[in-house]
Write a structure and sequence with these properties.
By secondary structure, this protein is mainly α. The protein folds into three domains: 34 residues; 90 residues, no CATH class; 47 residues, no CATH class.
């Protein structure tokens, strides 16, 4: 019974983090660019399938590096040739374009990889990471890039949040 509670809790936390990631991406894109991109989650899905396909042929680590680059390239092409032309017609046109794009991406993924979940092996035997290592890497990345994040937020429409974040960073650097 305890095992069920632990796994359900971890599953809920994982799902909540995924929803937060998608929601924060939508919020950042809309606040910075003024674009309603409902195909945002579909690009995450394409990245996962690209990572799966690449890792089958050349390995996990190249797939981990190449998949986001490929999805970023596709996203840049969609933004350049799709969203920029639709943007001048308002938010409703953007919403319809990205919603239709999300449906198209979903259908393409189902045509290529099917509707059945794929068996994705994260790491080969002997290449185990401890949770401690992952947490330390994440904390160091956040620590290294927090001032860049403050610069991004400064350009957004939340000046009070940016001011508080900058003052907190300056206090931490002094003391």
């Amino acid at each position: 019974m305890l095992e069920l509670i632990i796994f359900s809790t971890l599953n809920g936390l994982l799902y909540g983090m995924l929803l937060f990631l998608l929601a924060s991406g939508l919020t950042l894109i809309f606040s910075m660019m003024g674009v309603l991109n409902f195909a945002h989650a579909s690009f995450y899905m394409v990245g996962a399938y690209f990572g799966y396909q690449i890792s089958r042929y050349v390995g996990y680590w190249p797939g981990l590096v190449l998949a986001p680059l490929l999805v970023g390239l596709i996203g840049a092409l969609v933004e350049r040739y799709g969203l920029r032309t639709v943007h001048k017609h308002g938010h409703v046109a953007e919403l319809l374009f990205t919603f239709g794009l999300a449906f198209m991406i979903e259908e393409l993924v189902q045509m290529i990889w099917g509707k059945i979940p794929v068996d994705y092996r994260v790491l080969k035997d002997g290449a185990r990471w401890r949770i401690y290592d992952i947490v330390i890497e994440g904390v160091s990345l956040v620590n290294n890039y927090r001032s860049q994040f403050a610069g991004i937020l400064q350009k957004s429409s939340y000046p009070e949040l940016v001011r508080r974040l900058k003052s907190t960073i300056q206090q931490q650097e002094k003391g």
